Amino acid sequence: MNSFFERRYVITAIFITLALVLLGRLYYIQIMDDRYLLSAKENVLRRTISYPARGAIFDRNGKILVQNVPVYDIMVTPREVKPFDTLEFCKLLSIDKEGFDKRFQKAKKFSPFRQSIFEKQIPVQLYASLQERMSDFPGFEAVPRTVRTYPDSTAAHFLGYIGEVNDKMIEKSGNYYRRGDYVGISGVERAFEDVLRGQRGVTYNMVDSRNVSKGSFSNGEFDTVAVTGERLVSSLDLRIQKLGEKLMTNKVGSIVAIEPSTGEILAFVSSPTYDPNLMTGRERGNNLSKMYKDPYNPMFIRPIQARYPPGSSFKPLDALIALQEGIITPQTTFFCPHYYQAGNHQVKCEHFDGVTDLRKAISQSCNTYFCYVFDKLMNARGVKNIRPALTTWKEQVNKFGFGVKMDIELPFESRGNVPTPLRYDNVFGKNRWRSSSIISLAIGQGELLATPLQMANIEAVMANRGFYYKPHLIKAIGDKNIIKEEYTKRNYVGIDEKYFEPVIDGMQDVVDRGTAAAARIPGIVMCGKTGTVQNPHGKNHSVFVAFAPRDTPKIAIAVIVENAGYGSSWAAPIGSYMIEKYLRDTITKPKAQVQYIVNANLLPPPPGWKPPVRKLTKKDSVKIDSARKSKADTIRKQQELKSAGERKKKDTLNKILAYQPKRKEDE
Amino acid sequence: MNNQRSFFFNVDWLTILIYLCLCTIGWFNIHAAVFDETHPQIIDLDTEYGKQFIFIISAVVLGAVILLLDSRFFNGLAPVFYVVTVLLLIAVLVVGRNVGGNQAWIPLGSFRLQPSEFAKFSTCLLLARYLSGVNIRITEPKSFFTAAAIIALPMFLIMMQPDTGSTLVFCSFIFILYREGLSPIFLIAAGLAITLFILALLVNEWYIIGALAAVAGAILFFIRRTPQTVITIVAVLAICIAFIFVIKPLYAHFPSHQKARIDELLGITSDKRGIGYNVNQSKIAIGSGKLWGKGYLEGTQTKYSFVPAQSTDFIFCTIGEEWGFAGSVVVIGLYMFLLMRIIMMAERQRSPFSRVYGYGVASIIFFHVIINIGMTVGLVPVIGIPLPFISYGGSSLWSFTILLFILIKLDSNRLGHIL
Questions:
Q1: What mean pLDDT do residues B107-121 have?
Q2: CA atoms lying within 13 Å on the CB side of residue A231
Q3: Phi, psi at residue A244, to the nearest 5°?
């Protein structure tokens, strides 16, 4: 009756086998495969980032340099978009239909049911008209964000700008940043990025299959609140910063002013400059590329990146080192016959000074005197020992912050240049050079190169009679006004205090009755030095360095106007206006004089510029064929110039895209 | 004759315990699947888990009533049950409510009756009664075709709804027939047909034919070749090849949604947002449970409705997600334990009626479990059948309860009169 009894085992075996297949499959998807866990999280978790407002930056008197204004990002969730008046919407956003389609496809590609950015940074004015119509466009939402704004449109180079992160930065930050985030790209915005950016807030929400929020994840255990960025108090004085920028209108150059008793930078003018407001908002990309095409390179941060020979403004430093080394005393005299004979070449002196002591040498800027001093300094240990002499000299000059990085907060600082003996070995051959070969160093020319910041710092050393505080742009960080400790340390330059007075006597004479007499301000004892820097590429650079008042110095300044000629004619008056404005908050000189400087256009001709060629007429008694030939030549040359110019533009643009403009380091 | 006193000792309490365990697991998981912060109580008649509680209570009462009935009742009334369900199946085609494309429910007040659920045990009963009859040999064509007709009639009616899942459940009766003497060729043929079907859809048919020919050749090489075996093997090979060639044209005539489900399962197509959405989300739910699961009421996939039909056909997702691999093993273990117990119970019956019926119960439960869980983990195409005792739904719970408790009743009487 129960004849097929053994078949129960077959059936049991089939049951168990299939059950094991199920368990094997479950083991695979639950234990072995991690994809599903990720997918589940992706399904349910929605990260919402709340962006903190970036920290504001103030000037030393509490005036706002940068703050934030609200803008709106238009977000879209493609799934929720229902048919609407596309044309109307495009008009409100001021985009065209094509742009609309492109953006919409991009959002759809990202995710049909997740929100993504449709249009960035709609200004408040535009949003106002959009706002009341927003309900007509289901699926679109406006999210408030902030952008930077600069009420005085000033100090662009100091402040720098912010921009969207690129992939390289995201990687470098250990994925702190996410696509679409804004970071400081140059200036203080970059240097103090960590402080200014604040802390992002993250909220984790859970959503169901219809993307409806189901409340916070783990009761908000992983959520964080956005923390506003710290505020920065800059050392800049908005009044003289603005004045400086105004005075430098249509001029290429730089002004740096330092408060000697603290090292705080009072003015940081780089000219030509630009309106920092151009670097925010929707038009940023266009403005940026326009600026990179500008032949005067407004993006170049001249106070710390441009390198000029200091010229005559270097002479007080010469004197200090010689006094310290005991080469001269204030009473030492040399005879100036209008030139200095160095071996077989002459260093010209602008004037016949005759018997010259230190004070007169400085006030008259006597080249002959300082060539003698430098020559004696180099040969003090014997003619053979010029190498160690130059090395020692270089170290002494370096101590003034010259030829070394000043470690200012901004990125991309140049260190200038003070040559080493090796440099001359390369030029003349090993040990085949003498003091006469390098005599141009005596008058601040040749291989000596300094940034405007370094020149101003030397004046701060003069003002302090032997030491400086590290120049810096940020006075205090955050609400607690934190000051970095390194800025409270005196850096001594290794020159005894007593040697400063005779040099400063000379510098006072410069302003009182010397080369910078034009800079004299009744009632303020100013000590300064002009410089007319030989420029192999064009007209001489006009330089003026000074500090004032003599006994209780409040300001040390360096002014460089490129291709302007004599230091006394342009840089000195600019310097004096800056000083007076800072000390008295007013300028006593006639307004017309100031306006004359402001109005002067000293821009050099842009590269590739040619004076207009006069058209040939029949009257010209020139053979027709030769005319034709010269015409062909002109066209060819013009084309060459044009293509060269374009290549240059392209190169510059590439550099910019890499965000890391490489500056020439020391030769 | 046993007296009433020993009745409760003869009831297989272990089976009842497993049954209660599964019901409870079902109830808690339905709670988790449709959990809603606004209705946190587990007993709330507005919600599925509140209703399921009522279903469980009534199912237990139903089970108790069955245990109190006379066991001869089931044998005697088997044809009546069968006729009634067949009539209900016809009725549902006329007056039934169409839900999701299936005309499967008869509305009864606030509940809905699903006759196809009851067709399972009534068919099982009639089949048991028929096969236990004197002089019935399944190997004889007449008996075979009668048995087949008993199975085919409700299958046909359910197919009309159309409810493919429930229709296919009746295929599981092949295990009963096999146990009662049906040639194993049928089982092997069924297995071979399924394998060839899948292969034909995935691989070039000529490769399959080549492989089959190689296998046939190998068999012929190793066995003793008699004309009879050679003819048999060649014939089988020919049938297989013919079958392979009809699969594709036949498959082209499948209803398109079923074709799409099969294509998705076999990876011929991949559409995780469309036809493959359910299974993909179900796999995500189960896979994200890892070893120990996310914990009770913590399953985000199920709680936030990423998996459709999560309290009914896809209830296993909740188990996999919230209780992890451990929970899955426990549930499958319980089912296997129950099935082993049922087979054991079936085999200890003196009456063939009870034995056949016992195998019927095992087959039905086994088929549901394998197909349902297989579907949620992407091993089986999506077929809408419930997970016994666990899925939400009164009809299905009651029908499985009746199915199982009749067996328990019959078993409790095994030492008594032979039916």
A1: 80
A2: 16
A3: -60, -45
pLDDT at residue number B59: 94
- The residue with greater pLDDT, B45 or B135, is B135
Chain B, nearest residue to A12 by Cα = B340
* Residue that is written with structure tokens 């349902």 in the block: B372
Q: Going along A95-192, which residue ranges are E strands?
A: 116-123, 140-149, 162-164, 182-184
Q: What mean pLDDT comes out for the span B299-321?
A: 83
Identity of the amino acid at A258: I
ipTM value, please give it: 0.90
CA–CA separation, B387 and B138 (whole Å): 31
Q: Residue A43 and residue B284: Cβ atoms within 8 Å? A: yes
**Domain check: are A527 and A544 in the same one?**
yes
pLDDT in tens, A427-455: 888 888 888 888 888 888 888 999 999 99
Same domain (yes/no): A205, A346: no
pLDDT digits (tens, 9 = 90+) for A619-638: 555 555 565 666 666 666 66
Q: Using DSSP, how many helices (H) and how many strands (E) does chain B show?
A: 17, 3
- Name the closest residue on chain A to residue B175, using Cα atoms: A11
Structure tokens at B44: 């709330």
Name, in order, each residue with C-beta under 8 angstroms of A645's C-beta and a sequence gap of 6 or more: A607, A608
| A276 lies in the same domain as A212 | no
Instruction: Express each pLDDT in B34-47 by its tens digit.
Output: 776 666 666 667 77
Q: Is A554 among the domain residues? A: yes
Question: CB A228: neighbour CB atoms within 10 A?
Answer: 15
Residue A201 C-alpha, separation from nearest chain B C-alpha, in angstroms: 24
Minimum-distance CB partner of A7 among B178, B300, B379: B178
For residue A72, being part of any structural domain is answered with: yes
The residues, any chain, with a CB within 8 Å of residue B163's CB and separated by 6 or more, are B102, B104, B116, B384
> Which of B321, B329, B366 is the closest to A23 by Cβ?
B329
Contact partners, residue A321, CB within 8 Å, separation at least 6: A377, A393, A396, A397, A495
Asked if residue A657 has pLDDT above 60, the reply is no
B309: closest CA of chain A, how far (Å)? 13
**What is the CA angle A546-A552-A553, rounded to 5?**
25
**Using one digit for the tens of pLDDT, what is the confidence trace for A113-158?**
777 888 888 888 888 888 888 878 888 888 877 888 888 888 888 8
SS3 A532: strand
Mark whether A650 and A593 lie in a shared domain: no
Structure tokens at A494: 């290794």
Contacts of A338 (CB under 8 A, 6+ apart): A348, A349, A351, A352, A368
Q: Are A200 and A289 within one domain?
A: no
Q: Tell me, what's the pLDDT at A580?
A: 93
| Angle, in degrees to the nearest 10, between helices A97-110 and A86-93 | 100
**A391 or A49: whose pLDDT is higher?**
A391
pLDDT of residue B83: 94
Domain boundary among A578, A599, A620: A599
Within a domain: A318: yes
Q: Do A44 and B339 touch (CB under 8 A)?
A: no
Question: Token pair of B372, please?
Answer: 């349902």
Within a domain: residue A341? yes
Q: Hey, is A69 helix, strand or coil?
A: strand
The gap from C-alpha B4 to its chain's centroid, in whole angstroms, comes to 34
Between CA B323 and CA B3 the distance in angstroms is 45
Segment B242-252 shows an average pLDDT of 85
The pLDDT value recorded for residue A647 is 62
Tell me the per-residue pLDDT of A253-295, one tens digit each, with 9 for 90 and over. Answer: 999 999 999 999 999 999 888 888 888 877 778 888 888 888 8
Q: What is the pLDDT of residue A558?
A: 94
| Phi, psi for A345 (deg, rounded to 5) | -130, 155
Of A211, A234, A257, the residue that ends a domain is A234
